[in-house]
Design goal:
five-stranded parallel beta sheet; Cobalt-precorrin-4 Transmethylase, domain 1; Rossmann fold; five-stranded mixed beta sheet; alpha/beta
Length: 505
């Protein structure tokens, strides 16, 4: 069998959006992924579902596999003809032992490619608001390992030059040896008053920063129980943090928020919250699937030229409806004789993706708002198609029928329970470490109550801020005994994110 190839990909410092486009492309074609402790697991979502995922990081603080074992694993998988991605935190060639892995691959005759990543020193300094170089302060920077090899009897670091050089120093993996390293710098001539910053879990919502001096940073770290993984930044540039910090000033920084949307929809809202600094725990309480039978929807689609109106109340309805339209061999031309009502701007945007401009977008995104808009029109004798979710409210078809319209409301998709709730979210709720939970539809809160049990849900959400996207969802929350703390005036994800910002600010 011909050899495969190994891509050594830098995963960046923690934030999954900081990986390079080339790194994402390599993950997209991977058949095997060997990933590290410091590589954000969200990056695995870029890989094919069938790809083999092998964790080679730490378990309980100890390495799951030694370096020789990892080298042998890469060789074996590539020899079997696999496309292998070695996903490494930071950059593969900056304290990542990527050089050793490449040597092993070269000796085995395995082709490889190295994809650079944002190294921890760069990511940590930027997200901490500390420039590593500054025209008025220093023109040099040194990256130094905080832990030399255990088999070394003497340090190979030139502490004299490092201490007296005057540039910025960044120690990797140096929390456990912090006191010793700071003392060495002082002993070799660096001023005890030199500013120092420790940056833990850099670029992630869990980022923590501790500032001190060479003389006291070790005491401060011990007093605050500061743990790895972290980098240590030493130099006068650390003082600029007071003016330049930006990451922690985002309104939701440090807040842990649960998002209960369907898995395929959660990403958009999670990204909005993450961009505002929140730690997001995705907890899908609904799963969207095809209807048990397409018969009624297919019949309606074939009759589309005979309808006067099509009412689409969500982006989900649009996606399922147009997917079925395409499956049956139709396109946008089939709407030539009818008008379209889109409930909400997101629904309207989704419809526009198919080259169609909605004729009616009610200003009130509730079913009652749709009814109110149609009450101003003469729809006596009109034919209206209302593709819906299986658990949708029946206000729209009932009220339009009362106005004299002929309404067909076939099911376009179903809302079912996921197999289980994510264990990390349940653990966070049990630990009482969640600040807020968001509900974007009645189904999300009702399904959570069913899956957990109402009593357990109420207990887990004691003291947790409840955010609802609108009055119908809020009503469902209250019926289950939850107090709604946040409800935006406009029933959109953008408005909900802004309302969360306002509440926590």
């Amino acid at each position: 069998m011909s050899n495969g190839i190994v891509y050594l990909v830098g995963a960046g410092p923690g934030d999954p959006s900081l990986i390079t486009l080339r790194g994402v492309a390599c993950l997209g074609k991977a058949e095997v992924i060997v990933y590290d402790y410091l590589a954000n697991e969200q990056l695995l979502n870029h890989a094919p579902e069938a790809a083999e995922r092998i964790y080679a990081g730490k378990i309980g603080g100890r390495h799951n596999q030694g370096q020789d074992e990892i080298n042998s694993l890469l060789v074996a998988k590539a020899t079997a003809g696999k496309i292998v991605v070695r996903l490494k935190g930071g950059d593969p060639f900056v304290f990542g032992r990527g050089g050793e892995e490449c040597e092993a691959l070269r000796e085995a005759g395995i082709p490889f490619e190295v994809v650079p990543g944002v190294t921890a020193a760069v990511g940590a300094s930027v997200y901490a608001g500390i420039p590593l170089t500054h025209r008025d302060i220093t023109a040099s920077v040194a990256f130094v390992t905080g832990q030399e090899g255990k088999d070394k009897y003497e340090s190979s670091i030139d502490w004299d030059r490092l201490s007296l050089g005057g540039g910025t120093i960044v120690f990797y993996m140096g929390v456990t040896t912090l006191r010793r390293n700071m003392q060495r710098l002082i002993e070799h001539g660096r001023s005890p008053d030199t500013p120092v910053a420790l940056v833990r879990w850099a670029t992630t919502p869990c980022q923590q920063i501790l500032v001190g001096t060479l003389a006291d940073i070790a005491d401060r770290a011990e007093a605050s129980d500061f743990k790895p993984p972290a980098v240590t930044i030493v130099g006068e540039v650390v003082a600029l943090r007071e003016k330049l910090q930006w990451f922690e000033r985002r309104q939701l920084c440090g807040k842990k928020i649960v998002v209960t949307r369907a898995a395929e929809q959660a990403g958009e809202f999670s990204a909005k919250l993450s961009a505002r600094g929140a730690t997001v725990l995705e907890c899908p309480t609904i799963q969207l699937v095809e209807p048990e039978s397409w018969q009624l929807l297919d019949l309606a689609i074939r009759e589309l030229p005979n309808y006067d109106w099509v009412v689409l109340t969500s982006a989900n309805a649009v996606r399922f409806f147009f997917q079925r339209l395409d499956t049956l061999g139709f396109d946008a031309r089939v709407f030539a004789g009818c008008r379209i009502c889109a409930v909400g701007p997101k629904t309207a945007d989704e419809i526009r993706l198919f080259g169609i401009k909605p004729d009616l977008v009610p200003t009130d995104y509730k079913a009652e708002g749709v009814v109110d808009e149609f009450s101003r029109l003469d729809i006596q004798g009109s034919r209206v198609l209302f593709p819906r979710a299986d658990k949708a409210r029946d206000i729209i078809p009932l009220e339009l029928k009362r106005m004299g319209a002929h309404v067909d409301s076939p099911v376009a998709y179903r809302n079912i329970f996921p197999d289980r709730l994510p264990p990390e979210t349940l653990f966070a709720l049990e630990k009482r470490s969640v600040d807020c939970i968001t509900f974007t539809s009645s189904s999300t809160v009702q399904n959570l109550a069913t899956m957990l049990g109402e009593e357990l849900m109420l207990d887990m959400l004691k003291g947790v801020v409840v955010a609802s996207i609108g009055p119908i969802t809020s009503k469902s929350c209250r019926e289950l005994g939850l107090k709604v703390d946040i409800e935006p005036e406009s029933y959109t994800l953008d408005a909900l994110a802004e309302a969360l910002e306002t509440h926590f600010t």
